[in-house]
Amino acid sequence: MPTNATRGAPPRNAGPARRSARGFTMTELVVTMALAAILATIAAPSFNGMIATQRARALASDLYVTLAKTRSAALTLNQNVTLQANAGGWQNGWQILDVNNNVLDNHGAATGVTVTPTPSVTYRPSGRLPAGAVPVFVISTTSGATVNHQCVSVDLGGRPYMTAAAAC
Questions:
Q1: Residue 107's beta-bridge partner residues?
Q2: How many whole angstroms separate alpha carbon 139 and alpha carbon 162?
Q3: CA nearest neighbour of 93 among 72, 71, 111
Q4: Rounded CA gap, 102 and 121, in Å?
Q5: What pTM did the predictor assign?
Q6: What is the pLDDT, as a whole number, of residue 49?
Q7: Please, is 125 exposed, middle or buried when counting C-beta atoms within 10 Å of its C-beta (0-12, 13-18, 19+)?
Q8: Between β-strands 121-123 and 81-85, what pairing exists: parallel, antiparallel or unpaired?
Q9: Which residues of the chain have pLDDT under 70?
Q10: Which residues contact 162 (CB under 8 A, 6 or more apart)?
Q11: Side-by-side strand order, sheet with 103-107
Q12: Which residues are CB-contacts of 147 (< 8 A; sequence separation ≥ 6)?
């Protein structure tokens, strides 16, 4: 009669059959973490530059919309409407005022952004600017040694427009 050894069955004192291991080894995990750290170190400066550019673009867009609102208010109310900086400059926010200095709209401060000093912008009831008053807002952010610019201007017809950074 054949014994267990001759039939190919494991001997009785052998432990349970070993299953194949699943998951990662510690070495694989450490190598993966090291590669992720290297990639993050390389990408961080680019990411900071992108954030600074987006910050300038967002403020330029906000200023563009506010200029359009100011023009619309002048046309709707049929009176002069002024956009002016809050105390301390445009980066501290701005407000839209009617002829009686009632605040029609208010925009809060922006962090990490510089706006060139531009006098207040007054729209006439026709939606146009007074002759010779062509405001140009230059919005700047700094990321390392790189300075990012966005420009918002208003033509004499009163329409705001944004220009490329190189055209400032």
A1: 94
A2: 11
A3: 111
A4: 16
A5: 0.72
A6: 79
A7: middle
A8: antiparallel
A9: 1-21, 144-145, 166-168
A10: 60, 61, 64, 150, 151, 152, 153
A11: 103-107, 94-97, 81-85, 121-123
A12: 140, 141
Tokens of 94: 């701005």
Instruction: Enter the tokens of residue 10.
Output: 């494991």
Residue 90 CB partners (closer than 8 Å, separation 6+): 63, 115, 116, 117, 118, 137
141: β partners: 148
Query: At 162, which helix (H) or strand (E)?
Result: strand 160-163
- CA 141 to CA 150: how far, in whole Å? 9
What pLDDT was estimated at residue 71? 95
For 156, phi then psi, to 5°, come to -65, -20
Domains and CATH numbers, the chain: 26-167 (3.55.40.10)
